[in-house]
Design a protein that fits this description.
The chain is of the alpha+beta class and 378 residues long. Helices cover 46% and strands 20% of the residues. Helix 3 runs antiparallel to helix 4 and helix 7 packs antiparallel against helix 8.
């Protein structure tokens, strides 16, 4: 017979009157509405700068439009712009309208302009030392989907962190003259997307306020529960004591280092903190969902199988973000959607280990974990 759980500390939620419960609910609604209003009336998340291929050349020809080279100059940026995307939209003119796909290659060379010397500096090949690797010219495949007189926007480049105030980009199209778009490219619109510095400042203040509020509530909760033995805590109270420090990590006290340190490391730490909190929240719901019908909550039988499964999800999330960050540092034109070989192999690895862990959970008698697989994947 499984051991019965001892009576836990009575939660204050169960002792609230209708009026008190209504006040708590109204406070939550008011805070939610204020947050929505701030988000709606606040600054836009990104800012966009537009350049056209026809403006980059004094005498644009059809050969120039479908091959280049296009010499682009990015807008002046700072660390508060956080990241930069370069996107392109190709405009075509064809006698026969319809949908069609075109595969071609894009070559790109990037150099950064130093604010001190005002000269161009090519990125070094040692990407992890603070720079993005540009040795000669990057060359990546792109698939273009066109309909009627225009094509879909495509991402050409992504810089995960900005270590120069301005960038010079030289770009070429390859094999576009051997496709259906031969002599049909009318123009190309280039878009530089960056985070809005005003939004970044708002994000810093939001994180700071919620870090302070989370810290105050954590101290207040631990102070209120210190007079009770840990053995008398309920499963919800124990998980609150775990989730509150994880919430501090989710708000990331180290976030200002993103703007103070010229490195990719603060961004990686922020992604790891977010993955840790979300996996901890998933583990909480799994334990709470299974704990409703389970009285025997010994660590090896109750918590260990769940920690294995959620730990695998955490490793997968951190590995994917690290892999994408590493490849973007090596090649700004990297796109995870085109990295099908490594991505397919990683999916096979993930699901094989998932089903192995389901077998382990069946051995431990925790069959509800396999039934909760769909919720975990979401």
């Amino acid at each position: 017979m499984p051991a019965e759980i001892e009576p836990s500390v009575h939660m204050r939620l169960y002792a609230l009157s209708k009026r008190q419960f209504l006040c708590v609910f109204l406070i939550f609604i008011v805070c939610f509405v204020i947050t929505v209003i701030i988000g709606a009336l606040g600054p836009p998340i990104t800012v966009t700068f537009k350049q056209t291929a026809s403006d980059l050349s004094n005498k644009p020809t059809s050969i120039y439009m479908q091959s280049g080279p296009f010499h682009l100059l990015s807008p002046v940026v700072s660390t508060f712009n956080q990241q930069m995307w370069l996107m392109a939209k190709i405009l075509v003119h064809r006698a026969h309208n319809g949908k069609f796909d075109v595969k071609f290659k894009v070559g790109m060379q990037i150099s950064g302009a130093s604010s001190e010397s005002k000269t161009k500096k090519s990125f070094e090949s040692k990407a992890l030392l603070n720079h993005i690797s540009v040795v000669g010219e990057h060359n990546r495949s792109r698939e273009l989907r066109c309909s009627d007189q225009s094509c879909d926007e495509m991402i050409l480049m992504h810089l995960g962190f900005l270590d120069y105030p301005q960038f010079h980009i030289t770009m070429r199209y390859y094999n576009l003259d051997q496709s259906e778009l031969n002599n049909h490219v009318n123009n190309t619109i280039f878009y530089f997307h960056t985070y809005n510095p005003s939004f970044t400042q708002l994000e810093i203040w939001f994180r700071f306020v919620f870090i302070i509020l989370t810290f105050i509530y954590t101290v207040w909760f631990i102070h209120g529960m210190r007079k009770f033995s840990l053995r008398d805590w309920g499963i919800e109270q124990k998980w609150i004591a775990v989730l509150l420090p994880l919430l501090l990590l989710y708000n990331n006290p180290l976030f200002p280092l993103t703007f103070l340190v010229n490195s990719w490391l603060p961004g990686m730490v922020d992604a790891m903190f977010q993955a840790t909190f979300l996996c901890g929240l998933l583990l909480f719901w799994l334990c709470l969902y299974h704990g409703v019908r389970q009285n025997d909550r010994r660590f090896l039988k109750f918590y260990f199988p769940k920690m294995l499964i959620v730990g695998l999800i955490w490793i997968s999330a951190v590995t994917l973000s690290s892999w994408q960050q590493y490849n973007e540092l090596q090649d700004p034109m990297y796109n995870y959607k085109l990295d099908t070989g490594n991505f397919t192999g990683f999916k096979i690895f993930f699901f094989c280990h998932w089903w192995n862990l389901c077998v382990i959970s069946n051995i431990f008698g925790d069959q509800s974990l396999c039934r909760a697989k769909e919720y975990a994947l979401l």
